[in-house]
Amino acid sequence: MQDTPSSYSPWRTSVAPMMDWTDRHCRYLHRLITRHTLLYTEMVTTGALIHGDVARHLRYNAEEHPVALQLGGSEPADLAHCARLGEQWGYDEINLNCGCPSERVQRGAFGACLMAEAGLVADGVKAMLDVVDHVPVTVKHRIGIDRIERYEFVRDFVGTVSEAGCRVFIVHARNAWLQGLSPKENREIPPLRYELVYQLKREFPALTIAVNGGVTLNTQMADHLQQVDGVMVGREAYHNPWVMADWDACFWGAEARELSRESVERQMCDYMLREQAEHGTSWHSIARHMLGLRNGLPGARRWRQVWSDHRLRDRNPHEVMALAHEGSPSAATALD
């Protein structure tokens, strides 16, 4: 994890793993905006890696570093196999998902339901640590499950897993309700209880503790960093990626860069052409990740409409960018 001030934790700022969103194209966009923020893959299940196309799941762009692989699974041997793959592919971290509440994940006996089996999580962490040489193994989890709201529950979970060698915990400051709520509702309805995450840091000062959940503003991030080692941002970073433009200067002490939305968009066009040439990837599937790039600016709605229009798929992305910014009769004609 190069070019970051040594006094800062590598987990100081990060973008959360988000299914169907944080693929390698999304991460490439985010890296154009922030050089230092740690980026996470979507959750990749151990079954997908053991029985599926490894390259499809693990391929990433060299520019994405630092980048972490998040695994979903519970069998220690399977987790070890996949952690070894992650290190071989060059990921900077292996993260275990103990926070996802979806029914599909629960049927696989992993995700948030693993918080009820701290011993099994510890076994998985130890198995992964036994086979990797140079990358940290971390855990992302909730503060509790269902109606278990006692601090002692999450404290004991962290204590047990840390004894297996895990030194980094990313804590979503909400309970996960395993029954009765959708994943979306689980991100909104259980109340945020940041004080429990702060208490974990006080009780385990030698561990790295990062907080996740409900963070949308740089001022909130700064407040959290007075209490914990890092802040992970999820949906806000995806829907409003320009929020990250100040992170390197604000939170990493880096010199401010000359950076504009247009320059990022132009670089994404170059990337789309490269992806199309090397992998046959449609630029349309890449452009969806940058539709929030101009949030709040005049003309943003029309800009999104142009980039989303399937009738322009055969155009060079630089031409599409020109149309999106034109707002002229020729642009309108292209959409008629």
TrEMBL record:
Q: Give yes or no: UniProt keyword NADP.
A: yes
Report which reactions are catalysed by this protein.
5,6-dihydrouridine(20a) in tRNA + NADP(+) = uridine(20a) in tRNA + NADPH + H(+); 5,6-dihydrouridine(20a) in tRNA + NAD(+) = uridine(20a) in tRNA + NADH + H(+); 5,6-dihydrouridine(20) in tRNA + NADP(+) = uridine(20) in tRNA + NADPH + H(+); 5,6-dihydrouridine(20) in tRNA + NAD(+) = uridine(20) in tRNA + NADH + H(+)
Cofactor requirement: FMN
Which top-rank group of organisms is this from? Bacteria
GO molecular function (one): tRNA-dihydrouridine20 synthase activity
What positions does UniProt annotate as the active site of this protein?
100 (proton donor)
Q: What InterPro entries does the record tag this protein with?
A: Aldolase_TIM, DUS-like_FMN-bd, DUS_fam, DusA, tRNA_hU_synthase_CS
Q: Return the CDD domains for the record.
A: DUS_like_FMN
Where does this protein hold FMN?
Answer: 17-19, 70, 140, 172, 212-214, 234-235
Q: Site (Interacts with tRNA): give the residues.
A: 97, 184, 187, 301, 304
Q: What class of enzyme is it?
A: oxidoreductase
Pfam families per the record? Dus
Question: Gene3D superfamilies annotated for this entry?
Answer: 1.20.120.1460, Aldolase class I
E.C. number(s) listed in UniProt = 1.3.1.91
Xref: HAMAP family: DusA_subfam (MF_02041)
Annotated function: Catalyzes the synthesis of 5,6-dihydrouridine (D), a modified base found in the D-loop of most tRNAs, via the reduction of the C5-C6 double bond in target uridines. Specifically modifies U20 and U20a in tRNAs.
The record's family statement is:
Belongs to the dus family. Belongs to the Dus family. DusA subfamily.
Q: What is this protein called?
A: tRNA-dihydrouridine(20/20a) synthase
Tell me which species this is from: Curvibacter cyanobacteriorum
Query: Gene symbol?
Result: dusA
